[in-house]
Design brief:
Layout: H1 12-22, E1 25-26, E2 29-30, E3 38-42, H2 49-59, E4 65-69, H3 78-89, H4 102-110, H5 122-138, H6 142-156, H7 167-170, H8 179-189, H9 196-208, H10 212-236, E5 243-248, H11 255-269, E6 275-281, E7 300-301, H12 308-313, E8 326-330, H13 336-342, H14 353-361, H15 365-375, H16 384-389, H17 413-421, H18 427-436, H19 442-447, H20 456-468, E9 472-473, E10 504-505, H21 507-518, H22 523-536, H23 540-549, H24 553-566, H25 570-581, H26 595-606, H27 608-612, H28 617-629, H29 644-656, H30 662-670
Parallel strand pairs: 3-6, 3-8, 4-5, 5-6, 7-8
Antiparallel strand pairs: 1-2, 9-10
Length: 673
């Protein structure tokens, strides 16, 4: 039996938008003066776009719908896509009148490569067309039908739509269309300046042409027929739902050409049609939606913001172009509670796994699944917790599903995930991205000399590629909440010279990239380049950030000791403290040591003078503990991270010797107790 359909987590807002749009049916057309938007689900690679699309297919599985994946086959012309969608939409559903496509069917027959209509003898052309209609109607050779259906099923991915029914119900042609309808409805629709037969002969001739303009004219006419058939069917019989087409990977070749033509036809017609299009794309730069400032350059809504009213309210008056017809909704990362639902089976045996996976991945759906699967093979007793800390270093499962025991040097799980997340980037772009991950803000990395050793193509394309792939996000607030304590966002702009609010790399992707950089010989050199650039450009906190990443703990402690009395308030000092200690640590996980011992040894190794000085020992240990706590693997257990005691104690100790800041530091200590 097929597996039961599971509702993807975090898609409630998308479901509500889908249901709202497909029920907007009135008088045989899509209700509303603006018709229906082209909804595009965007997200990073692995965010669950295809899963969400298939779930919507299940929700709409009792009404006409079709799914087409543009990545499943080579590029197809728009009229070929329309024909395959018509096949899926014409499937007969219980208690639902089947959709007929007489105009499109006739047009597809006319442009068949095997049919040539006589352009000089209208009587002969008419006979040829009638014979072709009868032959198509009676053509039921089993072998050819099986091959035809198999190809259509592969193109449409119908078998991937849960709830569509048994395979036996699928392997049959669409309901036979009476020849009278094909002749009367389809034939008459093609009438134009000349007779329908003359227009069909011209269409047949255009289909033989190799010029781009003639091919575009054929695509346009047949896609017009597709929409006209839908309008006609909804006008002929009242229906309670708009029909739905689900288009996966429209950012691959062929996807945009079909949708661009569909939008053009809607613009030219002005009449709403009963077709709801939901598409997916991993490259937001290939979605021609309304402009908005940001890395992707297109207006994108969250699932919680999305609604028909939100889309309609954003339509400019008058619209300058057709971009308003596109509506981008970005799949969000999973919450801690949703990741806990995914890892419910581990709760009793390895309770720390779900919260750790969420902290590592920030809820990136596919990655969370991968890590939870890996955690399921970790023993829940003995050294299970230590293995969990090093989960990214565990061997990645082989292609067959198990661990590759035959490999001399198995690929670590983190590296295998990173390879999949960066699919589509060139090798040089990946190398450049690894080095850029050292910067706090991605723009800063691109502004420095880091990319000078790479090709012009990489220098010019990297920022655009990462922005379009939606890997740039708002920065996570640096405060107690980012170190395992309580409270987040309370230090916003507390500093006299707050840092910029430019987008940053997604924390999960950056963690994986930094792991790669840590294993290379470029760590110190890259951070030194960034430190010097920030120092020259008047960014002292960022310069200290990279100094700490290089292990210059004493330099950082010296600055913070001075600013503790120089800055106007405790919040301003805490802002500096958290901003600098957010620096990445080259070796963040040291198993086999208690948290206190780990802090002591690192502080003594990197800043022996400050560690030995009685008036700076507490500050040195505080900076070291917060630096370690910046890595999520050092915050186990989740309920009370092991470094919290050290951090809270050091804040208390520091408060005892800091008269101007005593109360504020004690309040901060309370966030870790």
């Amino acid at each position: 039996m097929p597996e039961p359909v599971r509702r993807p987590l975090g898609t409630e807002g998308i479901e509500a938008l889908f249901q709202e749009c497909r029920t907007r049916v009135q008088d045989g057309r899509a209700a509303g003066g603006h018709g229906l938007p082209v909804i595009v689900l965007v997200g990073t690679r692995g965010s669950g776009r295809t899963t969400a699309l298939e779930w919507l297919g299940f929700l709409g599985s009792h009404r006409p719908h079709a799914l087409y994946d543009f990545a499943s086959s080579g590029p197809r012309r728009p009229h070929e896509v329309a024909g395959r969608l018509a096949y899926g939409l014409s499937h007969r559903f219980a208690r639902q009148p089947a959709l007929l496509f007489p105009r499109l069917t006739l047009g597809l027959l006319v442009v068949d490569p095997g049919l040539s209509l006589d352009a000089h003898d209208s009587r002969r052309a008419g006979r040829q067309l009638r014979h072709a209609l009868y032959d198509a109607h009676e053509h039921t050779v089993a072998a050819e039908r099986a091959a035809d259906v198999a190809g259509l099923l592969q193109d449409l991915n119908l078998l991937q739509i849960p709830g569509i029914g048994l395979l036996a119900g699928l392997i049959r042609r669409p309901p036979r269309m009476p020849l009278g309808i094909a002749r009367r409805t389809g034939f008459s629709w093609y009438a134009g300046p000349h007779t329908p037969l003359h227009e069909l002969v011209v269409l047949n001739q255009l289909s033989k042409s190799t010029t781009e303009a003639d091919r575009a004219a054929v695509d346009r006419r047949l896609c017009e027929a597709f929409l006209a058939d839908l309008r006609g069917e909804f006008a002929r019989r009242r229906r309670d739902r708009n029909c739905v087409v689900l288009l996966d990977n429209i950012d691959t070749p062929g996807g945009r050409s079909f949708l661009d033509l569909l939008v053009q036809l809607r613009e030219a017609s002005g009449d709403p049609d009963p077709l709801l299009v939901v598409a997916t794309a991993s490259d937001a730069g290939k979605v021609p939606g309304p402009f908005a400032p940001g890395p992707a350059g297109v207006r994108i809504r969250t699932p919680e913001q999305a609604s028909y009213a939100d889309w309609e309210g954003s339509v400019p008056d008058p619209p300058p172009d057709s971009s308003w017809r596109w509506y981008c909704v970005q799949l969000r990362d999973l919450t801690a509670g949703e990741v806990a639902q995914l890892g419910a089976g581990l709760a009793d045996r390895l309770p720390e796994a779900p919260p750790l996976v969420h902290r590592l991945t920030h809820g990136h759906a596919w990655s969370a699944h991968r890590l939870l699967e890996a955690a399921a093979h970790i023993p829940g007793r003995g050294d299970g917790e230590e293995l969990l800390r090093g989960i990214l270093s565990l061997p990645a499962p082989a292609a067959g599903g198990g661990e590759d025991d035959t490999a001399a040097d198995p690929v670590p799980l983190g590296r295998a995930i990173l390879h999949d997340l960066l699919e589509g980037l060139t090798g040089e772009q990946r190398t450049a991205l690894v080095e850029c991950s050292a910067a706090r803000e991605f723009d800063a990395a691109c502004d420095t000399d880091l990319l000078e050793r790479f090709s012009l193509r990489t220098r010019n394309s990297l920022a655009r590629e990462i922005g379009n792939r939606l890997w740039l996000t708002p920065a996570v607030p640096q405060d107690a909440g980012a170190r395992g304590g309580r409270g987040s966002g309370y230090l916003h702009n507390a500093h006299p010279r707050p840092q910029s609010a430019h987008p940053v790399l997604h924390p999960w992707l950056r963690l994986l990239l930094l792991t790669e950089l840590a294993g290379s010989s470029r760590w110190d050199e890259v951070h030194e380049v960034l430190q010097e650039w920030h120092a020259r450009n008047g960014h002292p906190l960022d310069a200290l950030y990279h100094a700490l990443a290089r292990g210059r703990l004493g330099e950082v402690v010296g600055h913070l000791a001075r600013s503790l009395t120089d800055l106007p308030g405790t919040d301003a000092w805490l802002y500096e403290l958290y901003a600098v200690t957010a620096a990445p640590l080259r070796t963040p996980v040291l198993p086999g040591q208690t948290a206190t011992l780990r802090v002591d040894r690192l502080a003594e190794e990197l800043a022996p003078e400050s560690f030995a000085a009685p008036d700076r020992r507490a500050l040195t240990m505080l900076v070291t503990a917060l630096w370690l706590a910046g890595d999520p693997r050092n915050r186990v257990p989740a309920a009370r991270p092991e470094l919290n005691d050290t951090i809270g104690s050091m804040f208390q100790s520091l408060a005892m010797h800091s008269d101007p800041r005593r109360v504020g530091l004690r309040h901060e200590a309370a966030k870790y107790l």
